[in-house]
UniProtKB/TrEMBL annotation:
Gene Ontology CC: cytoplasm; GID complex; nucleus
PANTHER family reported for this sequence: GH10162P (PTHR12170:SF3), MACROPHAGE ERYTHROBLAST ATTACHER-RELATED (PTHR12170)
Compartment annotation: Cytoplasm
Protein name, as recorded: GID complex catalytic subunit 2
Family under the similarity heading: Belongs to the RMD5/GID2 family.
RING-Gid-type ZnF: 386-429
Entry keyword set: Cytoplasm, Metal-binding, Zinc, Zinc-finger
Segments of skewed composition (Acidic residues): 260-273
Composition bias, Basic and acidic residues: 238-247
GO MF, any single term: ubiquitin protein ligase activity
Domain RING-Gid-type: 386-429
Keyword hit for Zinc-finger: yes
Biological process according to GO: proteasome-mediated ubiquitin-dependent protein catabolic process
């Protein structure tokens, strides 16, 4: 468990009435006290009513204590994770790094302020951005503010399963190099239409097939569209989900027309009478032919949609950053993760203590004296070896990606261009690439 997951556990406790102290107390005040008052006013024996009310108060006390126990456990886990992530002797460590003092140089201090400002702006925390702007001479550009606001709005819409803003953004940028350029055009529009198709298919297969014909067929050469449609047609669990009136994300498609827009009759379709609800509850007790209960199928569907939704959020964020040439990730977040989550600071401090004066001033190290294990996504040094020259890529000889997707070193690419050629034939396939199209890669 990391700090993020510990904080998420606390947030889930606060959002659940069963684990909060206010939930049982509100139920006691709203239900039990009101009921007791009405019983006394109706002529029942006050002594009997008060006795029962005392029992309910004791039960409420137990519920509150039970909820507080969960809170204390979650708070304890958070404290443990903070202790693991950050060394307890930060003050001593800071002294070891204070020659020269950290961020004493105006340029270094401004770089830190800029990194914090950029991080807050990317996340749309405008109150904090304004506070930083007041304390420093830095200003967050208006164009980036507008883009960040647009990004946060679309991400929130995706999280709420409103995919229309994301589709409109894709439509506006479809003619740019980021969405249509070979060899890796963006698959974001397909995945947006795919999720809408799956949502619609839970209620109306014919409507879903029509939507697929209008919006998904064009992706057949590059995506498993036919497999998706076939899986929808032969999904036996759909009958169960159509019978339920649950509050899962699957109800979203009730308000969608065939183009993924809001249906004018959506509100009317949500209304049910008591008889239909009774039939629904009766049907929810059935079991499917494969032995799975309807409740299990519904939970599996919800989990699938949550996964699709989180993947879409990350995919859209990456495409948005690529479109406007922003860094893929928050640099401040990466720095903190490298120092705390992956334990780099602990390992460096341990080496400083063990080897002492043999290593000299830690601020003057050109490189770390020990290996710090990092996950693959946090390794930023190129390890690419050209398959043609068998040489490792460097800053002066970076890797280049051809139109077909194969990668060779720049020197190998230039050698293949000799003789007045305008394009290079890939060493591994017959496709040719012109010099202006070849893209440099950063590992």
């Amino acid at each position: 468990m990391y700090i993020t997951s510990a904080l998420s556990a606390l947030e889930s406790l606060s959002s659940s009435t069963s684990t909060s102290s206010s939930g049982p107390l509100n139920a006691l005040i709203d239900d039990q006290f009101t009921l007791a008052k009405s019983r006394i006013l109706s002529g029942e024996d006050p002594k009997t009513v008060i006795t029962e009310l005392q029992k309910n108060v004791k039960n409420c006390k137990k519920d509150v204590e039970k909820g507080l126990k969960s809170w204390y456990g979650a708070l304890g886990n958070l404290g443990k994770e903070v202790d693991k992530a950050f060394p307890p002797n930060l003050a001593d460590i800071s002294e070891a790094y204070s020659d020269p003092p950290l961020f004493a140089d105006p340029e270094a201090a401004q770089a830190l302020d800029r990194a914090i400002l950029e991080s807050l702006g990317r996340r749309g925390l405008w109150d904090a951005v304004e506070a930083i702007e007041k304390e420093t001479s830095l200003r967050y550009p208006k164009t980036k503010r507008d883009l960040s606001t647009e990004l946060q709005h679309i991400l929130l819409s995706i999280d709420q399963l409103n995919l229309q803003p994301a589709l409109e953004w894709c439509s506006e940028t479809k003619n740019t190099i980021f969405l249509n350029s070979p060899p890796h055009p963006s698959s974001l529009p397909y995945h947006l239409h795919k999720l809408i198709f799956k949502l619609i298919s839970l209620k109306d297969k014919q409507k879903a097939i029509k939507y697929a014909n209008e919006n998904l067929i064009k992706y057949v050469p590059t995506q498993p569209v036919l497999k998706l449609i076939t899986a929808c047609l032969y999904d036996k669990s759909d009958d169960s989900t159509q019978d339920r009136d649950g509050d899962s994300p699957m109800n979203y498609n009730d308000n969608l027309d065939r183009d993924g827009n809001e249906d004018d009759n959506g509100e009317e379709g949500m209304i049910e009478n008591d008889e239909s609800k009774s039939m629904t509850m009766h049907k929810s007790r059935r079991r499917l032919s494969n032995g799975n209960s309807i409740e299990t199928i519904s939970k599996a569907k919800e989990k699938e949609f949550e996964k699709d939704k989180s993947e879409l959020v990350e995919m859209f964020k990456n495409e948005f950053c690529r479109r406007y040439q922003w860094s893929k990730e928050d640099s401040l977040k990466i720095s903190i993760e490298l120092g705390s989550k992956f334990g780099s600071l602990d390992k460096i401090e341990k080496a400083r203590k063990v080897m002492g004066e043999h290593l000299g001033n830690i601020r003057k190290w050109d490189e770390l004296p020990m290996e710090v294990p990092l996950p693959p996504e946090r390794r930023y040094h190129s390890v690419f070896v050209c398959p043609v020259s068998k040489e490792q890529a460097t800053e002066s000889n970076p890797p280049k990606m051809l139109t077909c997707g194969h990668v060779i070193a720049e020197e190998s690419f230039n050698r293949l261009l000799k003789g007045g050629r305008r394009s290079v034939k890939c060493p591994y396939c017959p496709m040719e690439t012109s010099q202006s199209v070849a893209q440099r890669l950063y590992f």
